[in-house]
Amino acid sequence: MRTNHVLLLALVGLACINFMNSISAEESTFSRIVSRQAYPGEITIVTLENGLTIIVQEDHSAPVATVRCAVKNTGSVNEGKYLGAGISHVLEHVVAGGSTTKRSEAEIRRLVDTFGGMTNAYTSLDVTSYYIDCPARNAQTCIELIADSMQRAAFVPAEFDRELEVVQRELADGQENRRRVLWKLAQETIYQESPARIPIIGYLDVLRQMTREQIIDFYRTRYVPENQVFVVVGDVDTEAVLDQVSQLWSGTPRGFVDVPTLTPEPMQLVPRQAVVEMDGATTDVLAAFPTVSLYHEDLYALDLLAYILASGESSRMPRDMVLERGLVYGVDASSYTPTFERGYFAVRLVAEPQQADGALEVALEHLYRLKTEPVTQVELAKAKKQKASELVFMRQTVQDRAEGLASSFLATGTPLFDELYVEQLQKVSAEDIQRVANKYFVPERLNIVKILPKSAQDDALAEDTQAKEEAQENNSTDEVQFHRLDNGVRVLVRRIPHLPLVSAGVCAIGGNLLDDEKTAGRGNFVATMLDQGTKTRTEAEISEYFDSIGGQMGFSSGRNSLSGNMLVLKEDFEKSFEILADCWKNPTFPEKEFDVKKKQIVGAIQRRAISPQAELIELFADTLPPTTPYHLVSGGKLETVSAMTPESLRDFYFANMLDPEGLVVAIYGDIEESEALALAEREFGSLPKNPAHKAFDFSFENTLPGNLVRHKVTGKDTAMVLLAYPAPSMFDRKDRAAFRVLNAVMAGCGFPGGWLHEELRGEGLVYSVHGTTLSGPVPGYILFIAQTSPSSMDDVTQRLFNNVQKAIDGKITPEEFEVAKQKLIALYSMSSTTAGEQLTEHSLDELYGLGYRNHESTIAEYEAVTLDEVKQMAKKYFKNYVLTTTSNREKETETK
Hints:
Elements: H1 5-15, E1 17-19, E2 33-39, E3 43-48, E4 53-58, E5 64-72, H2 87-95, H3 105-114, E6 118-123, E7 127-135, H4 139-151, H5 157-174, H6 178-190, H7 204-207, H8 212-222, E8 228-234, H9 238-248, E9 272-278, E10 283-290, H10 299-310, H11 316-324, E11 330-336, E12 344-351, H12 353-369, H13 377-393, H14 398-412, H15 417-425, H16 430-440, E13 447-453, H17 457-464, E14 481-484, E15 490-495, E16 501-509, H18 522-529, H19 539-549, E17 552-557, E18 561-569, H20 573-585, H21 591-606, H22 612-623, H23 638-642, H24 646-656, E19 664-669, H25 673-684, E20 708-713, E21 719-726, H26 733-747, E22 748-749, E23 751-752, H27 754-761, E24 766-774, E25 781-788, H28 793-808, H29 814-830, H30 835-848, H31 858-864, H32 867-877, E26 882-887
Parallel strand pairs: 4-8, 9-13, 15-19, 20-26
Antiparallel strand pairs: 1-2, 2-3, 3-4, 5-7, 5-8, 6-7, 10-12, 10-13, 11-12, 14-15, 16-18, 16-19, 17-18, 21-25, 21-26, 22-23, 24-25
């Protein structure tokens, strides 16, 4: 099995049509197309004479589109003389939505807001990418906006200074994020010479030295056509896109491409270890061995090996270390294979401090055992099926497909690498797995990285020295069909044949609505137990089955409901649905699995202290009056979860979750209505009616008795602010629509925006600020949340209050109102595009009593909202408030 970049390109040549495409001299306003390739799936790739690559894929299944441009020879490894400054990331902040020579930043923001576009950007180790998601009718505008940013950024000094401050705040806040710290420490340990050791965001002392002139220099030398790949996917016309992009780049010639020479990483000769301490009660461990780049033939065996070890609960390490021995809260394995350098095979685990070293030894034993014990054919076949299914699952949304096309092309020169990759996976043998284990799992090349709780650092150092369902298809997707079984179960069916996938779900009233202060977290605990064993199936059999088919099944508890959902290939649906129904109807809550899950839940509760955001939300819930279910933390408290038993969960579940008139079952996907209905009848039609059934009463209060203020001192060098006011429920339809527009005016929707973002982020006072409405069938609250520095906490708090008063005073302009409304409408129209998303929305609407067709009137309700109604919302709801804050110092002043 030998595969390299040249072979990949040769294989692709069999699947595509190459031809030269020239244009006449009178079409000189266009940059000439010099090559064009057509691929299966309505994918077209062209190269312009100035070097720009354009990729277009038509997808008419939903009226949405995504427009993006990826810039290669950027990212932290490619920064050359600016290495360590994070200049690619800073440039991304300045360019994304920033002023161009054609439009100001404010004009761009207003234009995007008018059609509800969702725009953002990201920087990785080796690429920077910009994108706008939009309704398809606005794709041309988005193409023009991104093309303008890629060629004519203005670098307004005030914008540069502001974004530099924001990045510095982001860098500081990143030091409180365990995942970021673990990743950074791993890169710095595994790579000693390669620029892969440099954080994407750079180093603070180098970052502070950066000038506007250096940013402009980097932009002019790297943002040239031959470094750019422009991608458009969605409900568009290929020829129109190609014409527009060619014209927009007609005045930009090739540039002098600055391709930095990367220092290769020498072979590691001795083990390495790095240890840091952070706030929190658990220990994070990463163990890694150097391996290969993307272009090496061992890529495929290493990827399958990671799946065999830790993909799904039935795989080796989770079953042994989580379920059977209870050594860790979680464990995963991955094979990282970049294009620019040797990658590594890593195992990551989270454990109690006293168990971390033992857990690491067991993890390494799993890896070393592969050297002498071949994997079974069942394990190998399961991993291959999982990977094949993953390829289909990753094509559900236009965003997923656009990202996949860009990354495949940038890495291999073909958009079809994913298909070729799966083909090569199927050729891997058990002998190949054993060979790579012997080749790469060499103790002398082991890297160990640990994050310890602060109190455990000294003792540990001494010990460590030794060791998206697809969108609906035009003229093919059926309308939702509603059925009620004889016993009262409501069934929703929708045929969506665009992909060979089927989603199914079942839901009932649950979550916080059925819990109280003594049982908080019960719904969540129940959800974790439903797939842990039934009367006829063990947890191992259930997880083994779904892992073997590459399918997904899970149960979750929201604030208002308990639900089970699955997504599988069409061929696997009937048996999978039978298992989903069995888990819902016949869970046994086995004691062994209960003990494992209880330990995991307790660990999750303890780990809330790690996250500034989770810590703040828990403080907010604790501050609310007990009359509202939002007072309960969905995951529970240590004292409530500790008191739960298998018997208490079982009694609660069977008393509340099997009333057929309280169930909604939904089946959406590539399946005929008659077949879906027959399966629903077979699995749920025999549930006996409940003579005591009655509709759930959602009449809870969210009234605040006065202003509630609490502050918590933490050990984190960051501050969080949460300001909340009562909000209407989903049954207050007119108020709800106007209130959401108010939220959008003040804090944006979907992506950061609105008054708060413009003021607080605009002045560099916060790392992040957003607003969210925490409400449903029970009236809840609107939350304004900001993350800032401890020294700025009081100032940020006062500014939140100032903006609330601005809304109360009715200082919303007609333009702000219209932009917010259209953005909200566009956001909603671009949501629920996959079968699974639609199934969830329709099922919950039906469950709560709004009806499965509730979504059909949502846009009309937003359209009907008036400016006066929005102003009245602020006066009506912005009265008493809840203010919760956290920082590493005592709160000095009261703010209002």
